[in-house]
Amino acid sequence: MTSSIPERIVSVSAAPYDGYDLPRVLESLASIGATHVEPAFIVGYTEPFDESAFAPAQAMQWQRWLKDAGMQCHAFSSHIDLGRDDAVEVFRGRMDFARALGAKVINTNAAARKLKKRFFANIDVLARHAQAIGLKIGLENPGDGSDNLLNAASDGSALLARIGHDSVGLNYDAGNTISHRPGLNPADDALAAMAQCLHTHIKDVRADENGYFFTPLGQGGIDCARILRAVALTDLNLSIEIPLRLHRQPNAQPSRAPYRVPIADIEAVLRPALGFVRQHLGAAPARQIEETALS
């Protein structure tokens, strides 16, 4: 008896379109063959916003835009430090917004290590809320060099064991590892984290003396092809995340350009990125994929 593998969802992050209105973003994504968008609300990394962006009326508008464009939302990025005093109130509102768009996963950072006591209290409340509304929380390793509860794959198992909730897993991003912990091999660490992942991000990065620059897939130092071949042996869904308006300084701090990237330039990077992902996801032998699904 054989087992069929559910169709994998490949989302494309809205981060490259930083500065554009959502209808234009969705139109562009549809034109390059994307089917799912991952909205990106990350303070300092994207256009400024406040919590009014997540009001019910805004969710209804997003629903209309998604429907009109024929696009869907499976994953949603809205990174905050979950050790903040207001994290439960803020993140719960964002969770409800994401779920209203159809998202099944919301990605965020864990917390600065110094805030771990508050983090564990907060994540217990948020995990129960996630379960109640049919959402999962993907904790993502940061890229800014700070000391976080999730600096690398080696932190994942103990962190998730202490949280102890099926609604929380990892959203590992090897493109963050290269700047956050330069001593680690990003692809090795991504593969080590994969068993704890409920979603993953794919992006490539070129590092030099001027900092860290996000590149077309396959042109940086991450070995995205190797990561994708490993993903192909799992049932993980993933997002292509190439924040073209952003780069990281040598100290790993983000630097956002004062101007938005032209749509044509964004499409010139994302269209082949979709092809790259599909090519390498299809590179794993079918027999291996079937055996993994049955194991």
Which terms summarize this structure?
single chain; 295 residues; alpha/beta; TIM Barrel; eight-stranded parallel beta sheet; four-stranded antiparallel beta sheet; 12 strands; disordered N terminus
How does this structure look, described?
- 42% of the residues are buried.
- The protein has one domain (10-294): Divalent-metal-dependent TIM barrel enzymes (TIM Barrel, Alpha-Beta Barrel).
- By secondary structure, it is of the alpha/beta class.
- The chain has helices at residues 22-31, 56-69, 87-100, 116-133, 153-163, 174-180, 186-193, 224-231, 263-281, 286-294; strands spanning 10-13, 36-38, 75-77, 105-108, 136-139, 168-173, 197-202, 204-208, 211-215, 238-240, 246-248, 254-256.
- The longest helix has 19 residues, at 263-281.
Note the topology:
Elements: E1 10-13, H1 22-31, E2 36-38, H2 56-69, E3 75-77, H3 87-100, E4 105-108, H4 116-133, E5 136-139, H5 153-163, E6 168-173, H6 174-180, H7 186-193, E7 197-202, E8 204-208, E9 211-215, H8 224-231, E10 238-240, E11 246-248, E12 254-256, H9 263-281, H10 286-294
Parallel strand pairs: 1-2, 1-10, 3-4, 4-5, 5-6, 6-7, 7-10
Antiparallel strand pairs: 8-9, 9-11, 11-12
The tally of beta strands, per DSSP, is 12
The total of helices stands at 10
Spans with pLDDT under 50 lasting ≥5 residues?
A: 1-5, 285-295
Number of separate domains: 1
